Amino acid sequence: MGGSSNTTTTTSGGGGGGGGGKDKDKGKDSPAAFTEGERVLAYHGPLLYEAKVALPLPTPLPPPSVQLHSGLGWDEWVPSDRLLKYTEENIRKQQELTKNQAVDKTIKTGRAAQNNPKGSNDAKTNKEDTKGVVKGKKRKNQLGNEEKERRSSESLLMSQFPLTLKKQLVDDWEFVTQLGKLVKLPRSPTVDDILKKYLEHRIKKDNKISDSYAEITRGLRCYFDKALPAMLLYKKEQKQYKEEIKGDVSPSSVYGAEHLLRLFVKLPELLASVNMEEDALNKLHQKLLDILKFLQKNQVAFFLSAYDGDSKGADAVKGK
User: Fold this and answer.
1) Nearest Cα to 90, choosing from 27, 153, 32, 147?
2) What is the pTM of this model?
3) Local structure of 185: helix, strand or coil
4) Those residues with Cβ within 8 angstroms of residue 274's Cβ, 6 or more apart along the chain or in another chain
5) How many whole angstroms separate alpha carbon 96 and alpha carbon 41?
6) In angstroms, rounded to a whole number, what is the distance separating the alpha carbons of residues 165 and 170?
7) Burial of 85: CB neighbours in 10 Å, binned 0-12, 13-18, 19+
8) In this predicted model, what pLDDT tens digit does every residue of 116-137 receive, in sequence order?
């Protein structure tokens, strides 16, 4: 990606090799401190790169993340501790990190040349090269195993996705994309209503208020409000969204179960960049599965069996 401060970029996918969040002087701002479209500096490995905030998520789902957008065409949801404000001080820091890395590379290259003068024993060199290859393979295998574990955890949600809800998603796709029918808005119950009902269900079941479930429902509501226009709408639904969501109106107070279910399909992708321990991530997935089961149990009450082919839907189809 290069270290130039003139390159607009984002570190991408599953934490994007970012690391870097452990340094004490790395980004300390919460996602709420960043606004959509804001220019920022993001850690990718040891260096800082220029990026733009595409979708800030001030959400309780740990850890707080924001989505970055790049002119290179790749996005990433990253923890806020990998972000810095775009200030003169931080730009100098970016340039300093880039310069230091260049110096380190030069020094290492010089040392390598000194340690391997011409005329060295060829057998010894070959042995060292072989050892390096073996170490490289071991490291590659280790990274491969870590990636497998990560993918296994991410696929947990989808592998246990209730079959009746999968069919609901297929019907949803068919109504909108094939038949040109849209969900009539506002929906009843709304996403807000459903999440409140779920929390009441948990309180009744556990005989207490669970902070963890309350946190997750708040996080889901925030994810839904921010993610809906960015990734949860079909092209034919964009016009309807612009007509319905205006001013301070939140999508979760207008849309219902049909669009909430789409969020669950996207969650593995969104959570892929969450820097959590495997055990904690699995527990989060179990709680999300519990919400899915609640949706399944109330499928008749929460979901539409057919969509309206109203004038908005017809206009949207003609315009595409």
Assistant:
1) 27
2) 0.56
3) coil
4) 61, 62, 63, 65, 77, 79, 281
5) 14
6) 9
7) middle
8) 555 545 555 555 555 555 555 5
Which of 141, 119, 142, 139 has its CA nearest to residue 131?
139
Residues 249-266 pLDDT 10s: 999 999 999 999 999 988
Assess contact for 36 and 54: CB atoms under 8 A: yes
The full length of the chain comes to 320
* Joined tokens for residue 219: 């996080």
Contacts of 106 (CB under 8 A, 6+ apart): none
Nearest to 32 by CA among 213, 226, 192: 226
Tokens of 62: 């740990």
SS3 of 33, please?
Answer: helix
Q: Report the half-sphere exposure of 263 (CA within 13 A, side-chain side).
A: 26
Closest CA to 101 of 51, 42, 45: 45
Distance CA 154, CA 165 (A): 19
User: What SS3 class is residue 248?
Assistant: coil
